[in-house]
Amino acid sequence: MARIWIEPYRDQPIPYEYRRDHELRPEATGLLTRKIMFVTVAPFTFRFISTRQIEGCLAYYVQKTRHTDIEPEAASMNHWEAQRWYTELPMYLLEEPKRRKVVKALGRALALSPTLLP
């Protein structure tokens, strides 16, 4: 069974994705009550700071087959510039029984997130 919990997101700079998603100015970030959601499933812990991140991760795990990672605009980039967030995830989470557990856990986290995360 998955474990989901929330902690305050203190003393850490706000990641670029968070600022971009919420159109925040750097000087206004102190006004927010920031939280981070942890989802532990199939012994791996996901960390999310926005509902949008959970939606993206859930969309990735709902797919049984995935498209190629090669993108035309990435041809002129170094590997680290073109690397996607999901390439860092462990491959065992894509095995069918674990993938189903991850989808179920992320669905629960998404249902909780509107009341807890921006």
How would you characterize this protein structure?
The chain is of the alpha+beta class and 118 residues long. The protein has one domain (3-67, 81-116). It has 4 helices and 3 strands, in the order βαββααα. Strands 1-2-3 form a 3-stranded antiparallel β-sheet, with helices on one face. Helix 2 packs antiparallel against helix 4 (96-116). The longest helix has 21 residues, at 96-116. The two termini are 25 Å apart. Mean pLDDT is 77; it is low at 16-21.
The percent of residues in helical segments reads: 25-40%
What is the multimeric organization of the chains shown? single chain
Spans of at least 5 consecutive residues with low confidence: 16-21
> What would you call the shape?
globular
Derived from helix and strand composition plus strand pairing, the structural class reads alpha+beta
Name the strands of the widest sheet in spatial order. Answer: 1-2-3
User: What is the count of helical runs?
Assistant: 4
- State which percent range the strand residues make up: 15-25%
- Whole-number tally of structural domains: 1
Main beta-sheet strand count, sense and barrel state = 3 strands, antiparallel
What is the C-alpha radius of gyration, as a whole number of Å?
Answer: 16 Å
- Let me know the average pLDDT: 77
Q: Helix and strand string, N-terminal first?
A: EHEEHHH
Number of strands: 3
Spatial separation of the terminal alpha carbons = 25 Å
